[in-house]
Design goal:
CATH architecture of the largest domain: Alpha-Beta Complex
Largest sheet: 6 strands, mixed
CATH topology of the largest domain: 2-enoyl-CoA Hydratase, Chain A, domain 1
Radius of gyration: 19 Å
Number of strands: 10
CATH superfamily of the largest domain: 2-enoyl-CoA Hydratase, Chain A, domain 1
Structural class: alpha/beta
Strand content: 15-25%
Oligomer: single chain
Helix content: 40-55%
Length: 250
């Protein structure tokens, strides 16, 4: 893979590291293409159950598009900064340390879960330069935060520190500096340990059902749930035999 991004397997996780610290891990065309390839490699690896996206250097997760290069393809069907117009088929976790700005926020929103260090700062700073959100931010941010809070961040472009990001639901967890990747990998292993067919079906029902009329969403849940009932039968048998009781294994 390109030196712009590093791809490696760590246990049940694939770790994709944006490796442009001299540019605060801003994304240019080469990095965007490497990101698309990284997702392909992850999807093709059946043993890789969770993708962890992070940034190198200890100062930034991602500062967005590289405004010095200005070579991203806005019309790329998969997205300008990578596969941002796609939904990964398996869970993804953003492990954030430092600046998470502009398109970097959009990359974090692309992931299912976000873990950030106490020193992280978020913000749609492209607002001040007249750069639009074109990597899914206008759609994913309201789904995660609600429209009122999303519009606050979109319209003002103000900075959001880690404590507020946790309070409003922009991140799922805040950890001590230097432990973000370790925590993301720990969470990845926990997710990977569950029966995958049912977990992935439930994830798909939640993502694809969001925004549907309630009856249609429930119908989708029913359809996907029925496809994994054989897993439920096996799980019920394990429970009856004493596994997983009193919160063990959860």
């Amino acid at each position: 893979m390109s030196g712009e991004l590093r791809y490696e397997r760590v246990g049940a996780a694939s770790v994709l590291t944006i490796d442009r610290p001299e540019r605060r891990n801003a994304i240019d065309a080469a990095a965007a293409e490497a990101f698309r390839q990284g997702l392909k490699d992850f999807e093709a690896d059946e043993a890789a159950r969770v993708l962890v996206l992070t940034g190198a250097g200890g100062q930034a997760f991602c500062a967005g598009a590289d405004l010095k290069a200005m070579d991203l393809d806005v019309d790329h069907p998969h997205g300008p900064m990578g596969p941002t117009r796609l939904t990964p088929g398996k869970p993804a976790i953003a492990a954030i340390d430092g600046w998470c700005l502009a398109g970097g926020v959009e990359l974090a929103l692309w992931c299912d879960l976000r873990i950030a260090t106490t020193g992280s700062t978020f913000g749609l700073f492209e607002r001040r330069w007249g750069v639009p959100l074109v990597d899914g931010g206008t759609q994913r941010l309201p789904r995660i935060l609600g429209m009122g809070r999303a519009l606050d961040l979109i319209l003002t472009g103000r900075p959001v520190e880690a404590e507020e990001a946790l309070r409003i639901g922009l991140v799922n967890e805040v950890v001590e500096p230097g432990t973000h990747l370790e925590r993301a990998l720990e969470l990845a292993e926990r997710i990977a340990a569950f029966p995958q067919e049912t977990m992935l079906a439930d994830r798909r029902a939640a993502i694809e059902g969001f925004g549907l009329p309630l009856a249609d969403g429930i119908a989708l849940e029913h359809e996907l749930g029925r496809e994994t009932l054989h897993v439920a039968v096996e799980g019920a048998k394990l429970f009856a035999d004493g596994a997983g009781r009193h919160g063990k294994g959860v």
